[in-house]
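Lay summary. Proteins are chains of building blocks that fold into shapes, and those shapes determine what they do. In this project we predict the shape from the chain. Here is one chain we studied, written as its sequence of building blocks.
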Amino acid sequence: MLALLRPLLTACLCLLAPGARGRGPPRGDGFHYQDISEGNGKGEIYFNGVRLHVETPRLSVSATRGSSVTLPCHFRYEPELSAPRRTRVKWSWLPANAAGGPVAPEAFARETEVMVAVGDRHRSYGGFRGRVRLRRSAPGDMSLVITGLRLNDTGRYRCEVIDGLEDESVTVELELRGVVFPYYSQRGRYQFNFFGAQQACRDQEATLATFEQLFAAWEDGLDWCNAGWLADGTVQYPITAPRGGCGGVELAPGLRSYGQRHRLLHRYDAFCFSASLKGTVYFLKQQTKLNFTEGVQACAGDGGRIATAGQMYAAWRLAGLDRCDAGWLSDGSVRYPITRARANCGPSEPGVRSFGFPPPNMHFGVYCYR
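And here is the predicted shape, written in a compact code that computers can read:
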């Protein structure tokens, strides 16, 4: 009798032995897993069936302020499933100020939830509530549609698909098309601490520029020899033509950086970023020139309001505004936009020309926004 039982006992002991490998039963999620012990007493579960893939055809997307944008994200199974499965999808966001460089694990803890969806049910959060949805144009399409883009929507978005033990994700960078411009106070150069610079940009319908935005502006030819705050709390300035007093002639062209500065105590100018407009910036035709107060009233009488510096820069860069007439803006500055350089209209390069902040009783034209 013992001889007859010996093969069965041997088989049982082999299944229980540390080096044995056994195939577990299928789980309720339709996948197949293999329970493997490595001989050290620590069992591990290895996936041995259908594989989840999450992909995006574009690593970065750019759009304009106020528009709608789609951040692409698709998932699929390999091999394909015979029937659809119930998955959980989460979109999260790391603001542009914190999204520099590769994705580090600790960065996920700083992410803000944008939307979570399970089947046909979904929930959006914070400032994205009511502005986001999943496109769902085809099976596996979990692309995020954002409407009414805001200046501070830029950053790194992560699309995460969860199915049982499977958890895969991809990231997509969202950038706004716009323009970076240097900005200083009516009181003169280097008057803003970090928070004052933030407010100054907001007053001009803009935000503090990110490093990436300033770098892109430098690549486009921005050259400015005054240091300004950026959104990450660093102070930098772009130089395309090295010269004395701007880092010296020995340094190569690039961004000069003072690094992180004290946000309350240190004072500099600002680099602001303005994106596209929902309205129109225009030069108000008048029979006579106006002082600042008259300019404000004239724009209101025309059904608009006096334009901000940020609106003028955006209209110049994104809408091709070109006018060789100096005019008041809302901050008390006088400027005019040139896209086609010509005689008697300033330097030989396109740009927004500035007369600074003249006394408000002087007479100029006015730029309105409507």
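What the prediction tells us: The chain has a mean pLDDT of 86.
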